[in-house]
Amino acid sequence: MRRRAPWFVMVVVIAASLFVAAVGDRSPRSEADRVDAVSSEVRCPTCRGQSVRESNAPAAQAIRGEIARRVRAGEDDGTIRSYLVSRYGEKVLLNPPRSGVGALVWALPVAAVVVALAAVATALRRWRGASSGVVPSVSDRALVAAARSVKDEP
Amino acid sequence: MNAALGTAGVVLGTAASVLGAITMVVGLRGRRPSLLRLGRSYAWLVLGGALLATFAMQSALIGHDFSLAYVARNGSRSTPVFYTIASMWGALEGSIILWVLVLSCYLVAVVRRFRHRLDDPLVGWALMVMFVVSAFFFLLILGPANPFTVVSGAVPLDGPGPNPLLQNHILMAIHPPFLYLGYVGFTVPFAFAIAALVTGRLGEGWLGATRRWTLLAWGCLTIGIVLGSWWSYEVLGWGGYWAWDPVENASFLPWLTGTAFLHSVIIQERRGMLRVWNLSLVMATFSLTILGTFLTRSGVLDSVHSFTESPIGPWLLSFFALVVVVSVGLIGWRGDRLRSPGSIDSPLSREGIFLANNVAFAAFAFVVLLGTVFPLVYESLRGEQISVGAPYFNRMTMPVGMTLLFLMAVAPVLPWRKASGELLRTRLLWPAVAGTAGMALPVLFGARGTAPVVAFGLASFAAAAALRQIVLAARVLRRERRPVLGALVGRANGGMVVHLGVIVLAVAFAASSSYTSSSQFRLDEGQSASVSGHEVTYLGMNEPRVTRQKTVRSARVRVDGDQVYEPALNQFPNATQTIPTPSVRSRLIDDVYLVLVAPPAEKGGSALIKVIVGPLVMWLWVGGAIMAAGSVLAAWPTSRRRFEPTPASEPVGAPSTRSESDDTLPDTLPDTLVAP
Predict the structure, then answer these.
(1) Structural domains counted in chain B
(2) pLDDT value of position A48
(3) Both B524 and B478 in a single domain?
(4) Distance between CA atoms of residues B19 and B13, nearest Å
(5) Contact B382 A101 (CB under 8 A)
(6) Which residues of chain B does A105 touch, with a Cβ-Cβ cutoff of 8 Å?
(7) Which residues is B559 bridged to in the sheet?
(8) Which of A24, A49, A112 sits opposite B243 (nearest CB)?
(9) Residue B485 domain-assigned?
(10) Which parts of chain B register pLDDT below 70?
(11) Which of B548, B564, B545, B460 is nearest to B504 (CA)?
């Protein structure tokens, strides 16, 4: 029991830290936070792959201004995104679509990991089955015990 | 003159590569060692051709020989010599010259290293593969990507110079050569893997022959990638260092599979297992370098680095297909000999964790590859363009990254074969304490958000596990009265140093991507603004500096009432866009990154300045440097006899006297040493 005590303490400390870290993160979002959140997922149309939050290009600044105006007007994030898509096309969103063919890009990696883990688990089971055929005999155990007793003597 | 010289070099290189490959095949089929030994001469001839081509290109660039189309497009009289030299790899055609130069250096290094084994069929086949690869790239220069074509019509008097982004920072000259040393270096293990398959010598011989070569390529690729992100941070002015840009992904993909290989190869050496998997990883790494070159150089993907659209695409894609077909075909053909004799007894063992590591790295590579090519697939299926950007990659790779940090903590303490819970509890106690502290302390000091806090905890956990290994190795050395610094040398110990570098990098990445704050201010002269506890004061503009190369307008900005920094805007004579040059105050705790977004409209007016405060950014570069140092240490030759019995000091048969290779150090220690 005493040997496990440090582990219990650690589990408690970790749980407490995670709780504080997660709860502290959920403070109500300010308008500026929302502008940042939306604009970091919108592609700057004149740059290569940068978001309008990061880019200094005039087009990016303009879109950021538009997002800020709509956030102040009380539109929710989804409405702002669909406005931008209607104006600039699906390409303006840095996150690929979550429906239709686009959903594949989200689902395939998860499926691949599941398949890979299943394959590894099957292989492990097969290997174990193969190796468990050899059960140590009484004389094997005696040999090991003898070897151990030699080692333990100084 | 330069065109003729360069073309002569390319023809020489092509001929030597083709003849070298043919000679190897004839020598191997007819079992004629004298022919096989000719490989050395052909390798030197290939290097001669590459050097001649490089010399001709440099002479044309430095001598402003605008009769060459490449120089007319990428050179200019106003570009400083340093950037003129570097502009050889600033555009597609020239960069292929660098590719063949690096490849022929590797070729010569291989014939030097294996000079006593040149009549060994394994080496012969490996050389044959390298000759074929080099012939392909020389043909690329002769055919679709010829840098020595001459301009049609009148020779221009001056050129536009390299892309403005490429003549802005010294790193641009260093980063591509390192990247190529890494990219091209994976040709060597690939060649030996093919040779092993062809000769049927699929034991561990080819692995031993290529271990250091893989490590060298991997280390150079690591340095190349880190320098690339540093360049992007210092030059591009958006305050970030990794954008999941297709070019970055293309360099990252072989790094991921190469890293997986460096780990899983240990299972094969120790247990003779995973032969097919290791071969596949080597093949995948090499073919990903070709695929990456195709994706980024053919112009199919929209990216900062694909400067030109060129007819090179179909060539590279065909070569990629050839590599894949040959690799898969050979593995299928040798399938019967690849059945591994060993087995893994327990998932809770060193080999079990390496297996998990490989699943994680494969998943990582899969996500990056899928995300990079998915827009192409989608467009061809639906006829509509979509983006797969940083938010996707960050979300998908974060769980994998966390898993890898966790595995990095557990793997070093696990013994081979099987571990008991008791043993794990003992060995992991102090790393776990460190991990808990690494999670709790940042929270106490105000860090919030689950992802970064978990990352800090796992990183501390892994760091403590790596340090524990180094300390244990040092203790053994001290007991044996050998230099304690040896605890940093050798594959296992050097590997731990690399781990520490990765951990430093991971912490810096987690902190800077979660806690960076950025604001933009319009400031009058003398006016101040404050971001995350830092005060910046705009003092005014400098007089514009006009040189032949560019016009620089810079602002003077005082940070924290201390030093003055000068973010600038560059106007190049032949470019319409202005290129910002950010100015960064780097400290151990955080970076203050200043960008001049817009200079004042009239003299003495207000300037638009962006201030980005990124915590721990400097540690990204420190972590990269530690990783580079670690790979050198891991490749450092260690004495094979280190663990041989020393009868005077050790009881016979004690665990620490087993003679083993150096990566088994932790297991050879009795647990009494380990327990606190």
Answers:
(1) 4
(2) 74
(3) no
(4) 10
(5) yes
(6) 370-371, 374, 378, 388, 392
(7) B536
(8) A49
(9) yes
(10) 301-310, 341, 574, 639-676
(11) B460
- Out of B413, B436, B456, a domain closes at B413
Q: Which residues of A touch B384 (CB under 8 A)?
A: 89-90
A13 part of contact set with chain B, CB < 8 Å: yes
- Examine the domain organization and report whether B21 and B57 are in the same domain: yes
Check residue A16 and give its pLDDT.
93
Say if residues B285 and B361 touch (Cβ distance below 8 Å): no
Beta bridge pairs of residue B185? none
Task: Look at residue B470 in the predicted model and tell me its pLDDT.
Answer: 93
Rounded to whole angstroms, how far apart are CA atoms B556 and B541? 6
**DSSP secondary structure letter of residue B96:** H
Q: Is residue B186 part of a domain?
A: no
Cβ of residue A7 closer than 8 Å to a chain B Cβ: yes
Radius of gyration, CA atoms only, chain B: 27
Residue A134 banded pLDDT, cuts 50, 70, 90? low
DSSP B415: P
Question: Within a domain: residue B447?
Answer: yes
Residue B302's pLDDT is 55
Cβ–Cβ under 8 Å, residues B50 and B6:
no
Give the residue on B whose Cα is nearest the Cα of A55: B238
Q: Which of B281, B296, B368, B386 best probes binding to A when mutated, by most A CB atoms within 10 angstroms?
A: B386
In a domain, B540, yes or no: yes
For residue A105, give the nearest of B359, B374, B432 by CB distance. B374
Identify the pLDDT of residue B646: 36
Q: Residues B440, B363: one domain?
A: no
> Which residues touch B445 (CB under 8 Å, ≥6 apart)?
none
How far apart CA B297 and CA B94 sit, in angstroms, is 12
d(CA B40, CA A100): 56
Last residue of a domain, one of B413, B428, B456: B413
pLDDT of residue A28: 66
Q: Are residues B340 and B375 in the same domain?
A: yes
Contact status, residue B473 vs residue B591, Cβ threshold 8 Å: no
Beta bridge partners of B613: B517, B592
Length of chain B measured in residues = 676
Domain that holds residue B563: 517-616
Query: ipTM above 0.90?
Result: no
Mutate to test the interface with B, among A10, A12, A56, A127 (most CBs of B within 10 A): A56
CA A57: distance to chain centroid?
31
CA angle, residues B388, B390, B393, in degrees to nearest 5: 75
Q: Do B251 and B113 have their domain in common?
A: no
Average pLDDT of span A108-130: 87
Give the model's pLDDT for residue A2. Answer: 62
Residues of B in contact with A102 (CB under 8 A): 378, 386
pLDDT given for residue B665 in this prediction: 35
Burial of B342 from C-beta contacts in 10 A (0-12 / 13-18 / 19+): middle
A40 touches chain B (CB under 8 A): yes
Within this chain, do residues B387 and B268 fall inside the same structural domain, yes or no? Answer: yes
CA nearest B518: which of B244, B229, B239, B233? B239
* H and E: helices and strands count for chain A: 6, 0
What kind of fold does domain A5-95 have according to CATH?
Helicase, Ruva Protein; domain 3 (1.10.8)
Q: How is residue B387 annotated by DSSP?
A: -
Contact B439 A14 (CB under 8 A): yes
B112: nearest Cα among B189, B39, B193 = B39
B45: three-class secondary structure by DSSP: helix
Question: Per DSSP, which regions of B583-664 are E strands?
Answer: 583-586, 590-598, 607-615
Q: Of chain A residues 96-115, which have a CB less than 8 A from chain B? A: 96-97, 100-102, 104-106, 108-109, 112-113
Q: Do B490 and B537 lie in a common domain?
A: no
Same domain for B482 and B337, yes or no, is no
pTM of the model: 0.89
User: What does the domain layout of chain A look like in residue ranges?
Assistant: 5-95, 102-152
B381 and A101: CB-CB below 8 Å? yes
